[in-house]
Write a structure and sequence with these properties.
The protein is 33% helix and 22% strand. The protein is an alpha+beta fold. The chain has two domains: 70-181, PurM-like, N-terminal domain (60s Ribosomal Protein L30, Chain: A), CATH 3.30.1330.10; 189-354, PurM-like C-terminal domain (Phosphoribosyl-aminoimidazole Synthetase, Chain A, domain 2, Alpha-Beta Complex), CATH 3.90.650. A seven-stranded mixed beta sheet has the order 9-11-8-12-10-13-14. It has a five-stranded mixed beta sheet with strand order 1-2-7-5-6, with helices on one face. A two-stranded antiparallel ribbon has the order 3-4. Strand 1 and strand 2 form a beta hairpin. The N and C termini lie far apart (59 Å). The relative contact order is 0.17.
């Protein structure tokens, strides 16, 4: 075979690979279920299909805006507000490192922070099952008050509903929050460009693994605590050191793997992760290995993923590591142009594999 023929054959193979990848990238999840399943709440492909088929056509028909952690509302004064809402149905209600009360405050504050907003106020609504102990309710409410005080934000309005015994699994909490976005602060997937650096503020999967073990169903014991924490302070330190920061997201449901897939989809670029850089505590890695779960898809409640310009990456890491919530921050990967819209993991063996969005529901009821 001549060199010309060999080069042509190689080019044809590469074209075929890119065509398969492009087909994979364009394939959006479709809702094929007749009833809602637990997988629809796990933050992965089933959740995306439910949004695309039910909620977005009803509430955001015709909108081309990417789905972010909070809505941005422009006020007549020219100021911008971030507005977010979330519900918390974790089981058990209390786990090593926190409780549903801490999550309810931290989760909403973090959604605001990922838009660059400074939290102003929260609301809280409680769905309480008949027979729920008042002392337990008082403790959860105290946790929320403690978490809000730690953030410096007030819970200013709310609602309470009581449902029949057996209808609510104890207690569900919903919170909404508003925050003010400083002038000139712009974050979003559209800002991400080729060559940007992907950072993560700490280890993956701590919260999901802690909750999983706290249920006591698996006969496993390990010293693992949830990482639930507010991220607004870390966000401010990061943006001060790296004002060109492009994009932020906290890695909750679906973990870092799903968050990076959302980034790749919304930016139409490639997120390339380094397997040797993936930060996982040994205890978390061991528990996930025993259960056959990839830590890439296990939730955190106090970690963020950031995309920053390459010339600001070192300053960003230094600032994050100086903050209590970012002491384990590291460089996770980088942004490439091709093949667009997917996440690629460079393995420790020198190969690559596609990191797809989470399929199924390996860890139900973790946030």
């Amino acid at each position: 075979m001549t060199d010309t023929a060999r080069d042509a054959q190689t080019s044809d193979r590469e074209a075929a690979v890119f065509e398969r990848i492009e087909t994979f990238r364009r394939r959006r999840p479709r809702l094929l279920d007749d009833v809602v399943t637990l997988a629809h709440g796990a933050g992965g492909k089933a959740s995306a299909a439910l949004l695309d088929a039910v909620f977005l056509p009803a509430f955001a028909a015709g909108s081309a805006e990417p789905q972010t952690d909070a809505a941005v509302l422009a006020l007549p004064s020219g100021e911008r507000l971030a507005f977010s809402t979330d519900s918390y149905v974790v089981k058990p209600l209390r786990f090593p490192g926190g409780s549903v009360g801490h999550l309810a405050v931290h989760g909403t504050v973090n959604d605001l922070a990922m838009m660059g907003a400074r939290p102003i106020a929260l609301s809280a609504a409680f769905v309480i099952e008949e027979g729920f102990p008042i002392d337990d309710l008082r403790e959860i409410v105290a946790d929320m008050a403690e978490a809000a005080a730690g953030v410096g934000v007030s819970i200013v309005t709310g609602d309470t509903k009581v449902v029949d015994r057996g209808a609510a699994d104890g207690l569900y909490v919903s919170t909404a929050g508003i925050g003010l976005i400083p002038a000139g602060r712009e974050l979003g997937a559209s800002k991400v460009t080729v060559g940007d650096v992907v950072l993560v503020s700490g280890t993956m999967g701590d919260h999901g693994t802690a909750v999983m073990l706290a249920r006591g169903d698996l006969a496993l014991e390990a010293d693992i605590s949830s990482d639930t924490a507010p991220l607004h302070g870390l966000m401010e330190s990061l943006l001060h050191a790296a004002p060109g920061t492009r994009w932020l997201r906290d890695s909750t449901r679906g973990g870092v793997g799903t968050v990076c897939n959302e980034l790749a989809r919304d930016s139409n670029l490639t997120v390339v992760l380094e397997e040797t850089a993936l930060p996982v505590r040994p205890e978390v890695a061991a528990a996930c290995e025993l259960l056959g779960i990839d830590p890439l898809y296990v939730a955190n409640e106090g970690k963020l993923v950031a995309v920053v310009p390459p010339d600001e990456a070192d300053a960003a890491l230094t600032a994050m590591r100086a903050h209590p919530q970012g002491s384990d921050a590291l460089r996770l990967g980088e942004i490439h142009a091709e093949p667009p819209g997917i996440v690629v993991l460079r393995t420790s063996m020198g190969g690559t594999r596609i990191v797809d969005m989470l399929v199924g529901d390996p860890l139900p009821r973790i946030c």
